[in-house]
Structure prediction request, 412 residues.
Amino acid sequence: MPSPRSVHPQDDLTPRQREILDFIRNRLTVGGAPPTRLEICAAFGFASPNAAEDHLRALAKKGAILMTAGAARGIRLPAPPGLPVIGAVAAGSPLLAVENQRGTLPIAPELFSPRADYLLQVRGNSMSGVGILDGDLLAVHRTVEARSGQIVVARLEDEVTVKRLQRRGSRVELMAENPEYAPIVVNGPLVIEGLVVGLIRGGRPL
Amino acid sequence: MPSPRSVHPQDDLTPRQREILDFIRNRLTVGGAPPTRLEICAAFGFASPNAAEDHLRALAKKGAILMTAGAARGIRLPAPPGLPVIGAVAAGSPLLAVENQRGTLPIAPELFSPRADYLLQVRGNSMSGVGILDGDLLAVHRTVEARSGQIVVARLEDEVTVKRLQRRGSRVELMAENPEYAPIVVNGPLVIEGLVVGLIRGGRPL
DNA sequence: TGGGAAGCTGGAAGAAAATACAGTCACCCA
DNA sequence: TGGGTGACTGTATTTTCTTCCAGCTTCCCA
Prediction:
């Protein structure tokens, strides 16, 4: 079995490599074309093009970039720039959620702050009070840290739900934003999957 | 006065030049980097790199592309691909609206259907019933045609507002989606500025 | 009817870029 | 106390790319 490469190749990069990758990303979005070795040298103060070459080799080996041999500016990003769309999640009374990627939308993760890692399609109207409606795509930042009052993507057993996190002392509650839905008092294992950092609605006239 | 170059530089291109431009656009989005002269030759069957060079010169002269002299793959697109963000519009009781571009967000117009032409920032909560909240960015498709029941950007005198259009025979009403706001019965001049085709909320955790 | 403009061929010079080879230095780890 | 890895310097070679030159054909239009 081949080594199970991380879903986020940038996770196992060194800090320096991450800097290089960020620079390449920036050049691709701002300038429209990937940098050359010499441009990387100029940006980081390297005296030798081989310093850049080494970094690119390392990034390519880790899957963070793709390189076209022999081509000028032959650096490409492996994943088409955009956010993966994850299948519907129960936002009504929690239903089974499938972590199944439906596709990709050409939206920059940096459009949101903190950066979005994926889009999650909402099912149900339990959060309609804060303008999250059935079918909306939520931009989610992957994290396990969430403060009380924030809207989170949470997993209870095998069910994924979007709710407002409420900590009252030791008690943890998941609050809907719709009077028709009662708060869920957590006593089983709760996993915070991420923080809701944005919302996209579209594809048809509203 | 210099010739008033069109806002859409691709409008006064020859069919062949448009083909070349489309190819460059495709390479930029699919491949991540602009093509070289020889790659253009290969794609179109040219025998000489100068055929590509001539086209690039023509495209640059017409403002459809920008070229960095001496750089490999030095072709760039003039407008950063994205949607202009228009300043806040009154979505409460209609206030003065400024058609002032604040900036640009890197979002593909084709993300919405029909295609979005600009983003309009909402002020007020008159449309909260359909999940449009204060500060949201609405994706707007520029059109004067709207059917009854659609959510439109409308101009009444000098005021711009977002409401649901309601035609009852000859009477035209602009309905809020919030019980605190009364319907507006239109008797003065009404201009439909566009159709709301999407929504983006972000920039901070919700 | 003649003169641009668009759209090409063919060739070639020189700059820009990729890439190989041979090292150095610091750090972590077994 | 090595040995591997990351992060570089310095030099050199080859390939890719840009860019220029000189021409050719077709079409439109004044």
